[in-house]
Design goal:
The protein has a two-stranded antiparallel sheet with strand order 1-2. The chain is an all-alpha fold. The longest helix is centred in the middle third of the chain and has 51 residues.
């Protein structure tokens, strides 16, 4: 239920963002479209926006994981076995330590992925948009080489981030099995009553079974959010564009016999010199 609600909310926000980006780029003067790189707009409206929607979904999932984890830790704190609570609390500390160790690497890789994605979109746009020149110059191999140089590292970096997001659970599950075996062996040596050991091991296994997925969800969501920061920044930059064309009713100018240009001047934004001035 939580996944369905968070997915619907993220999709609604993404749709609104997509419409606003398109609107804030469409309702701009002609000079704006001459100066802006259209591959940037396409990237923000497609791949970067999709990553932003995923980021919103991950934030909601991380919040849910935090609430579940806190509830489990509080519940386990009331157990009579303090050692059991300490062991389970160690799992949370382990995730914090792993997050600290991979933080810089995740951020660097996410920025590299963003850069490679922008380059791929630019290459696709330039090659397919200028296919006539490419055919005349017989330069297909040049674009193929550039594409491969950017696409292969991009795939590897994405898989690296995916590995960083999944690896801790495998390691900590193995660590939990070792702890269970160690506790069972130690208790079996120090006590002849093996029956008393069963409830302790059962509580530990149940707590770890419930707590580890929640901690993994928090950690994986954190990795995904850090990986999407660059995408989110570009999307927010597009959303900050001020709409310049206020009146867009779609009504056409009605011309009867002629029209006149009176005192027309033009200069590029940020420039002091006019290309022409008071043209009539």
């Amino acid at each position: 239920m939580n996944i369905w609600i968070s997915g619907r909310f993220a999709a609604s926000v993404g749709s609104e963002f997509s419409y606003e980006i398109f609107k804030r780029n469409l309702l701009q003067p002609f000079i704006y479209h001459l100066q802006i790189n259209t591959s940037k707009v396409i990237a923000a409206s497609t791949a970067q926006l999709d990553a932003t929607v995923i980021c919103i979904n991950l934030i909601l999932q991380m919040m849910a994981g935090i609430i579940v984890s806190i509830g489990l830790i509080i519940g386990l704190s009331f157990t009579s076995n303090i050692s059991l609570f300490k062991i389970l609390f160690t799992f949370g500390f382990a995730y914090l330590l792993i997050s600290y160790l991979v933080k810089k690497n995740v951020l660097e890789e996410s920025l590299n992925i963003l850069l490679k994605t922008k380059r791929l979109i630019k290459i696709l746009q330039e090659s397919l948009g200028g296919i006539r020149e490419i055919l005349l110059d017989n330069s297909q191999q040049i674009y193929l080489s550039i594409y491969k140089e950017n696409d292969y590292p991009l795939r590897r970096k994405k898989e690296k981030l995916r590995f960083l997001g999944l690896a801790p659970r495998i390691l900590l599950e193995a660590f939990g099995i070792i702890i269970i075996a160690f506790i069972a062996y130690k208790k079996s040596i120090s006590s002849n009553d093996f029956i008393t050991l069963v409830p302790i091991l059962g509580a530990f296994i149940l707590g770890a079974q419930k707590l580890l997925p929640s901690l993994q969800q928090i950690y994986a969501s954190w990795v995904g959010i850090k990986s999407s920061i660059g995408y989110c920044v570009d999307v927010l930059d597009m959303l900050d564009n001020e709409v310049k064309i206020k009146n867009c009713t779609g009504k056409r100018l009605s011309l009867s016999n002629s029209f006149k240009l009176i005192n027309i001047s033009f200069k590029y934004p940020g420039k002091s010199n006019y290309l022409f001035k008071d043209l009539s």
